[in-house]
């Protein structure tokens, strides 16, 4: 009910989840499990995440426990959010969580720096990175606290028409 996939697509994702499970569990172990989970290092082998600079953050946000393990429900939720049919507000919520490295409900200097380093693969000089972070904060934050709340983040995304087309993973 809470997915943007058809039943056929859900079945295809379930098959994929089970194939990935076989990389970690034996068929006998898997049959005994009522709710198998995938460890993060197995999820990270997926082609869709291998080249994504935020793969570890994506896995963390959609995982079901502190170790980063993911049930099929988390796996399905991850692909649902990155589905082209997912609405902007759902994508914004999860994008914010992915970029909020310290989990404090704000995007502050450290979060922005880590995001920028991943996007640019650390190719910027320190001065360039600082200039970009300053400009982002000037543009996005509205209450002069030098951090971006989720509401401020949503406001910025409302002015970014390409956000929906770039925040997806093809299945």
Automatic annotation (TrEMBL):
The keyword Magnesium applies. PROSITE patterns: EF_HAND_1. Residues 91-157 form the EF-hand domain. It comes from the Eukaryota. Gene3D superfamilies: EF-hand (1.10.238.10). Keywords: Calcium, Magnesium, Metal-binding, Repeat. One of its GO terms (molecular function) is calcium ion binding. GO terms for biological process: calcium ion homeostasis. InterPro entries: CIBP, EF-hand-dom_pair, EF_Hand_1_Ca_BS, EF_hand_dom. PANTHER family: CALCIUM AND INTEGRIN BINDING FAMILY MEMBER 2. This is EF-hand domain-containing protein. It comes from Ciona intestinalis (Transparent sea squirt).
């Amino acid at each position: 009910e809470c997915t943007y996939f058809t039943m056929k697509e859900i079945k295809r994702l379930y098959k994929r989840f089970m194939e990935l499970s076989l990389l970690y569990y034996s068929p006998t172990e898997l049959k005994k499990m009522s709710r198998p989970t995938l460890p993060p290092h197995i999820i990270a082998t997926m082609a869709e995440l291998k080249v994504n600079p935020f793969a570890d953050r994506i896995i963390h946000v959609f995982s079901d426990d502190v170790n980063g393990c993911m049930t099929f429900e988390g796996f399905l939720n991850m692909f649902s959010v990155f589905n082209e049919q997912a609405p902007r507000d759902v994508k914004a919520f999860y994008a914010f969580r992915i970029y909020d490295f310290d989990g404090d409900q704000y995007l502050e200097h450290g979060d922005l720096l880590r995001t920028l380093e991943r996007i640019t693969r650390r190719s910027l000089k320190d001065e360039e990175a600082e200039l970009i972070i300053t400009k982002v904060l000037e543009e996005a934050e509205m209450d002069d606290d030098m951090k971006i709340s989720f509401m401020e983040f949503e406001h910025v995304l409302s002015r970014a028409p390409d956000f929906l087309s770039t925040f997806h993973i093809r299945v």
